[in-house]
Design a protein that fits this description.
Domain CS: 38-143
CATH topology of the largest domain: Immunoglobulin-like
Number of domains: 2
Family: Belongs to the small heat shock protein (HSP20) family.
Structural class: alpha+beta
Domain SHSP: 34-147
CATH architecture of the largest domain: Sandwich
Pfam families: HSP20
Radius of gyration: 23 Å
Strand order of the largest sheet: 1-2-7-6
Number of helices: 2
CATH class of the largest domain: Mainly Beta
InterPro entries: A-crystallin/Hsp20_dom, CS_dom, HSP20-like_chaperone, Small_HSP
Order of helices and strands: HHEEEEEEE
Shape: flat
Helix content: 10-25%
């Protein structure tokens, strides 16, 4: 008799996949109501000694006016609009998974950054934002003059 490892959550994983398929494939209109995270761009945020770097997947942007970047109180907000110009009749559509429309994503930053010197580049569907960290003020000893 062979031993089969017990996986207590295997059935839950199958159920999760079925729910995902249900909302994405069968009822795409419910995506925005019940799954707004499906329309949010994916983002990575990491830091080095001198800067905080955010990379965000945003395929389909055509011009720089399609994306806005705001930094306020250690919060980074990326918003914009992805347009799809290809007209396809609904009855000819077999599968519709690609996102288009308005998006917005706000994440907290791990360090305070200098918003004046932020550089953003968009290449091959990936937006990279480089934010220099604010330099901590150096402690300075003040000599007291006695008279």
């Amino acid at each position: 008799m062979s031993l089969i490892p017990y996986e207590p959550f295997r059935h839950l994983e199958n159920m999760r996949r079925e729910f995902d398929r249900f909302f994405v494939d069968d009822f795409p209109a419910l995506r925005t109501a019940f799954g707004p995270s499906l329309n949010m761009p994916r983002i990575d945020v990491y830091e080095t000694d001198t800067e905080v770097i955010a990379t965000c997947d945003l395929p389909g942007l055509e011009k720089k006016e399609d994306v806005n970047i705001d930094i306020d109180n250690q919060m980074l907000t990326i918003s914009g609009n992805v347009n799809r110009h290809q007209e396809i009749k609904e009855e000819n559509m077999h599968r519709k998974e690609r996102f288009f429309g308005r998006f917005q994503r706000t994440v907290s930053l791990p360090s305070r950054v200098n918003a004046e010197n932020v550089k953003a580049t968009y290449r091959n569907g990936v937006l990279e934002i480089r934010m220099p960290k604010l330099q901590h003020e150096q402690r300075k000893r003040i000599d007291v003059q006695f008279h």
